[in-house]
Design brief:
The complex is a heterodimer of chains A (about 375) and B (about 300).
Chain A (H helix, E strand, L loop, with lengths): L3 E9 L5 E10 L4 E5 L6 H9 L6 E6 L2 E2 L10 E4 L11 H11 L4 H15 L14 H13 L5 E5 L7 H18 L2 E6 L2 H7 L2 E6 L2 E6 L1 H6 L4 H6 L6 E10 L2 E4 L6 E2 L2 H10 L4 E7 L4 E3 L8 E10 L3 E8 L4 E7 L5 H6 L5 E6 L5 E4 L10
Helix pairs in contact in A: 2-3, 2-4, 3-4
Chain B lengths: L2 H8 L2 H42 L19 H6 L4 H32 L5 H11 L8 H11 L6 H11 L6 H8 L3 H9 L4 H12 L1 H17 L2 H7 L8 H7 L6 H27 L14
The chains are: A alpha+beta (about 375), B mainly alpha (about 300).
């Protein structure tokens, strides 16, 4: 258990490509931090620098207050789970888990106790005598987690541990990682490209792009107060709808007029705009698909559009529509809100009216792409 | 029409194709076996001749027949009255020491070139590739001078020879480096995070996964000195106590000695073959494939 502190950490490869720019982050003791971002954003590189598997080109990495830049991985007291499991194929599951303990010259009876204990928690006791090749993907990943678990390391690093599993198993293992985290009660750094994993697992999420941190915050913060368009689009699925429009001020109230509709920015959002002193200007308006609703044609706030694709997700429909000027939007409609007749009508080419409330809008600067309130 | 032809005539097209496939497979297998048996007979004839002649008692000179008229171990017995045990020991020691040292050097070298990234890695590999293209014989004269100055020729030829054999052994890294490259790097990384040093990674992870290559390296490292003639001949330079078996035995084929020692030469040849044969038989079973199954998601 320990804190991790990264100060101005940089990674420059031999070919002068900078993978990570001045990365600053403090991870508290027992905190679960998730690095998330598209591939090539430097999240894995940063994790591997913490692990000591990549040289650090600049800045310092501290674990528990000690600068570890020049320490070998074995001296950093970390545990790591790899995306491809990296099990030792010539050893049984038992030997795989016991490997690090034996390197520490721990007495065999203690090794036995720790390994069987970990195996029990992970439900792999019956496979202890098998070799990795006789296990399924999920079982292998459990062994990899077990191998990291028995070490009682200061920091637990996980590099996309679930990406090689199928969707169902991934959901199951995600829940198990949450349970595991409660049992281990240690510092976790977790890398993923999947925003769902990031949202469900992390105490804090670090969203990265091109080696730069775009935003650090709790799942609620990054979801409700995205600092820029990149974060807004990356977090949440399906991604946020973006609409070019004008923000107008009239009589101390803010209005937007997307596609000819006129919607007042109501509630807290209006108040926040006032407090931030945002002036009338061209903006990119962000509205999440779940905040859009089907509307009455006569409403002042109704936006006319045409249905292109109707994705039936079970509990909800994802309606892909386009407006008169060709802007594509996605609307999430709970299935339960529609009658069977209404659902049958939702086919290609159907004319629809949609709208959204004033309190769920996000405003981004047209040039800067930065959130006008939280940026 | 024969019965077979009738059968084929009445068969459905699918069956027909099936039969054709089966028949052609049997045919090609037969052809392959016949060819292989013929080749192995050609291969075995000289060995069988040597073996039989080594047991011949009635004449030490070449005779016009293969099967001895009088069987016995006289030739083997006589061998031990000559310098043969000395040559044999010389060869065995130099081959054994070379096998051990060269294997260690080659495996460490291969691991380094496979896993470490340092500035001169590529130039070094290229340099060794180019150097490897020159025949080793070119170095013979200068090596002799150097070893003579060091006092490692003639009676002291064995340490000198070992030095020559292992000096360039690092250059034989290609095969094992190629094999190491196929072992996922994440295994190294996992082990290093688990607390292993680089050497422990090599010892506990890489080598157990590379058994076939380790065996191959040991075998080639042993075989080189075991069968060497040219360097051994030069460095021992006519001193019997510094010779290896190849050089020593060959001297018996001089025209003034051959009549008295031809069958003894054959017996010596049989004894030379024994350790290599045993080595191959023992190590053969380690040629297991597919040891990396299940390591990483593949």
């Amino acid at each position: 258990m320990a804190s991790v502190k990264l100060t101005d950490v940089k990674k420059v490869y031999d070919n002068k490509v900078t993978a990570v720019h001045d990365f600053n982050l403090e991870i508290a003791d027992k905190e679960f931090v998730v690095f998330v971002g598209p591939s090539g954003c430097g999240k894995s590189t940063t994790l591997r620098m913490i692990a000591g598997l990549e040289d650090i080109s600049g800045g310092t990495v501290e674990i528990d207050g000690v600068v570890v830049n020049d320490l070998q991985p074995k001296d950093r007291d970390i545990a790591m789970v790899f995306q491809n499991y990296a099990l030792y194929p010539h050893m049984t599951v038992y030997d795989n888990i016991a490997f690090s303990l034996r390197l520490k010259k721990m007495p065999e009876d203690q090794v036995y106790e720790k390994v069987t204990n970990a195996a029990e928690i992970l439900g792999i006791t019956e496979y202890l005598t098998r070799k990795p090749r006789a296990l399924s993907g999920g079982q292998r990943q459990r062994v990899a987690i077990g191998r990291a678990m028995v070490r009682n390391a200061k920091v637990f690093l996980m590099d996309e541990p679930l990406s090689n599993l199928d969707a169902k198993l991934r959901n199951q293992m995600r829940a198990e990682i949450i349970l595991l985290r409660q049992k281990l009660d240690t510092t976790f750094v977790y890398v993923t490209h999947d925003q769902t994993e990031a949202m469900t697992l992390g105490d804090r999420i670090v969203i990265m792009r091109d080696g730069i941190i775009e935003q650090v915050g709790t799942p609620t913060e990054v979801f409700e107060k995205p600092r820029n368009i990149f974060v807004a689009e990356f977090i949440g699925a399906p991604k946020m709808n973006l609409i070019n429009t004008q923000l107008e001020v009239s009589g101390g109230k803010y209005y937007v007029s997307p596609f000819g509709a006129r919607i007042e920015v109501s509630g807290e959002k209006g108040e926040e705009l006032r407090q931030a002193g945002v002036a009338a200007q061209d903006v990119i308006l962000g509205v999440r698909p779940e905040h859009m609703v089907l509307a009455d044609a006569n409403s002042e706030a109704a936006i006319p559009c045409t249905l292109e694709v109707n994705e039936m997700m079970g509990s909800e429909l994802h309606l892909h529509v386009y407006t008169e000027d060709g802007t594509r939007l996605i609307v999430r409609v709970p299935t339960i809100n529609l009658t069977l007749e209404q659902r049958k009508e939702l086919v290609y080419g159907k004319k629809l009216y949609i709208t959204f409330e004033g309190k769920v809008m996000h405003f981004f600067g047209k040039e800067s792409n930065v959130n006008l309130i939280y940026g | 029409m024969s019965e077979q032809k009738l059968l084929e005539h009445n068969a459905s097209p699918v069956q027909k194709r099936h039969m054709g496939l089966k028949a052609s497979r049997t045919l090609s297998n037969t052809a392959i076996y016949v060819l292989l048996i013929a080749i192995s007979i050609i291969w075995l004839v000289p060995f069988v001749c040597i073996l039989l002649q080594s047991f011949r008692v009635e004449s030490t000179w070449q005779v016009g027949y293969v099967i001895p008229q009088q069987w016995g171990l006289d030739n083997y017995y006589n061998l031990f009255k000559t310098d043969f045990p000395r040559w044999y020991t010389n060869t065995f020691i130099s081959a054994l020491v070379t096998a051990v040292l060269q294997t260690i050097i080659v495996l460490c070298m291969s691991y380094t070139l496979s896993r470490f990234r340092f500035k001169l890695r590529k130039p070094l590999m290229r340099l060794m590739l180019i150097l490897g293209m020159f025949p080793g014989m070119l170095t013979m004269i200068i090596l002799y001078r150097v070893l003579k100055d060091l006092g490692l020729t003639q009676a002291n030829a064995v340490p000198g020879l070992i030095l020559v054999y292992i000096a360039s052994s690092g250059m034989g890294y290609y095969v094992s480096k190629g094999f190491f490259d196929t072992i996922p790097r994440s295994l190294d990384e996992a082990a290093r995070v688990d607390g292993a040093t680089r050497f422990q990674v090599l010892k506990k992870i890489i080598l157990p996964l590379s058994k076939p290559i380790v065996i191959y390296t040991i075998l080639t490292a042993f075989m080189g000195p075991w069968g060497d003639y040219v360097f051994a001949q030069y460095i021992s330079f006519g001193t019997s106590s510094g010779m290896n078996v190849a050089v020593g035995l060959y001297r018996w084929l001089n025209k003034d000695q051959i009549a008295a020692s031809y069958t003894m030469f054959c017996a010596g040849g049989v004894l030379v073959a024994i350790p290599v044969t045993v080595l191959f038989m023992c190590l053969q079973k380690y040629y297991v494939e597919g040891v990396t199954g299940g390591a990483v998601k593949g």
